Amino acid sequence: MKTVFKKPESLTDAKFHYCPGCSHGIIHRLIAECLDELKIREQTIGICPVGCSVLAYEYFNCDMLEAAHGRAPAIATAMKRLLPDRYLFTYQGDGDLASIGMGEIVHASLRGEKITVIFVNNTLYGMTGGQMAPTTLLGQVTTTSPYGRSKDWEGYPAKMAELLAQNEGSAYICRTAVNDPPNVVKTKRAIKKALQTQARGLGFSMVEVLSTCPTNWGLSPVEAMKWVEENMIPYYPLGEFKVKEE
Amino acid sequence: MGKIAVFAGGLGSGKSELAINFALEEAKRAAGVVLADLDMVNPFFASREVGQVLERAGVKLFGPGGDLSFGDVPSIPAEIIALIQQENYLFIDLGGDEVGSLVMGYLSRFIKRWEEMEVFLVLNPYRPFSSELAGVSKVKQLIELAARVRITGIISNPNLVEETNLKTIIEGHRQVQEFADFLQLPVKFLCVEERFWDQLLPRYGSILKKLTLHLRPTWLQDT
Amino acid sequence: MARGRVIFLAERCKACGLCVEFCPKNILVFDDHTINVLGFHPVMLLQPDECTGCGICGLMCPDLVIQVERE
Amino acid sequence: MKKVLMKGNEALAEGALIAGCRGFFGYPITPSSEIAEYMARKLPKIGGAFIQAESELAAINMIYGGSSTGTRVMTASSGPGISLKQEGISFISEAELPCLIVNVSRGGPGLGGIQPSQADYFQATRGGGHGDYRIIVLAPSSSQEMMDLAILAFELADKYRTPVMIMAEGTLGNLMEPVIVREAVTEFLDKPWATTGCVGRKPNVINTLHLSQEELEGRNRHLTEKYKMISKNEKRAESFLLDDAEIVVVAFGLLARIIKKSVMEARKKGVKAGLIRPVTLWPFPDEHIQAVSRTARTILSVEINMGQMVEDIRLAAGGKIPVEFYGRIGFTPNPEEITRQLLFIAEREGLL
Fold it and tell me: What are the residue boundaries of the 4Fe-4S ferredoxin-type domain, all occurrences included (chain C) (predicted)?
């Protein structure tokens, strides 16, 4: 018997604090597997956000920083400029990246910063109790869009992958999901490609991962995975939006 | 001296102080002397601060007026285009570096009296970026590009303000002369404070120019 | 005969059921007779002989509960 | 000794480079922009990083990241920009990341004006952002000190793992003076806490989140102990003609230099005046104030604001001596104006 699946080295032994079925755990593991497979754990520095994954610094077994809300790309920018041979990744939720940190993410992409952003989109603020996010879908009920998000009142959900793909500085922009095994495999492939893009010095890379929040969606973990497929993917199409080869 | 004198140069090379002095001196001989303060880069220690002194001497000052004199916004005095085309003695004080000279680039297309115009590059070799030929020739090149005019001469302004002494001036001027030779430009003036005048006159003769400091706070002089 | 083996770190299991849902052989269930330190009925393998060691359970598990071995 | 004629802002920037600063992250604002411009010219040539950030928020977080790599880094701004940076300064203080923050001040509140100002004294000396913290604040009074205190600032920042602020009036930033260019700093403290990739060691974490009450209180107690240590070791002030002084002026920055002239003038007219110039605004040099409150008749705080440092002077004086205030806004009083004030007080107190 040989081991075909186990906890990657790039994760610590700490237990995740996430709710049952929350896909942060899957995404953490995929990043760690990529660091293991590329053998870059000791060369990598991760930056975690404010949001449910605020404690991610306890889970990744590499140098880690905790950022102020939305500012991770600015922190990563300076670190990468001063440590150009290191790998920098930020791990950001939709409130962090697409709302309060919209300025930082857009400019990091415009400058073509050689960093990798893992953007976890679960359509609401999980940490603070299910408020509306920039990525909340039209019609979706949250605690601050109690009548359902409407285009006239709250405006349209942000498509960050499409937005950032337009910037010349973006070298690899991809949207994936972790709602079923094939998509989990594709997500890992995308994260690895993003890190390789960084290694080749091609520019800014981001993987937007459609994720779940069973607790605030009021669904079971299995129902939540189906909700991603039925509601999120139609509005947030999966695929590569920008692939720079040199 | 032509009828339009433009003072360009690196940040802090002494342009404003020189423009004020040249304008005041001209005003002793002629009517219709105008000083245009076009420093859009930095409103600290600009020639607009000594408006009253100029006015008493019969020099008309055009600069960002009223509230804008300490405004942090570029503001070209509206009269300047007319002034450039009229018969007068016009002294133009530009802001520092090529950025400060951009305004001249805009104005240059209104100039009709080219033959009456002198454009000075003010050099103080004790300033950062002006102590080496590379820095000086770069600033000259960038200023000409930005101002869309050719520099016609150099004004040597070697000083360490209150700590200036004869040695500072002589060594500094030698440095400026070297730069000038390399740039193939004549050194038109060497400016020194009044206190050095007598001792330096025999050495430098007609290029020596006496300066009175108008922008330097007096309280600095013995603290 | 089983070609795979699944090892559960039962104390990490939050009984989200994703492995149960996605197991292609439908051989995973919750262990109603056990409650782990987190207060959940952890997942268990009902028919070990059927396991092919495909690893999909581990792939979908958000909590690093599962280790998979294969011949 | 080589002297260069430098604006205060240039001298400060050069001082930072001499101190080994290799990262500048900032957003332009008058009257601080010459610092960024100087760094933009110089840093790329010596292997440093210069970024004009998209905002002050980004800039201060670049400082957070830059400092985390163990590199000496700095930012420079002015009042409104420093306000925007406060969130980051709070985080940097809690994460104990050394850095230099420069405030070439302007008047406020709001956009105010770019004239000389000392109105950010409260903001600087009370920490400025949220939470229990302090930062070291240095107030230079000449171009030479702009350079020398920049070098000192980095040394203190590394020693205590804290942000250090240099606060200067816009006039000082733009005033040209001859400066002796110092030797490059070559010895630096080790920074084993830096996040540079965990090659051959356990991972480092830089974090400001503390969920448990015990941990949070412990962190605050730790910081407080550090601030006490800084207070004990690092108070700095310049004393001028204090021995027999009956009226003691307290002033900082370029203003204090001007007031030296006033003090000398007043003495010529028979007023026994003296001057205390705090060089560290935090920690505030209260022992200097306590000493003169036993010997002098009155203290006059002169500031380019509506009365901020005067509160620290009163605290230090502890009611033992009257403390009065004279302030201007957007304007550096000339020496005569303060001399007149000293003569007025002397006459009123019967000291003439």
Answer: 4-33, 42-71
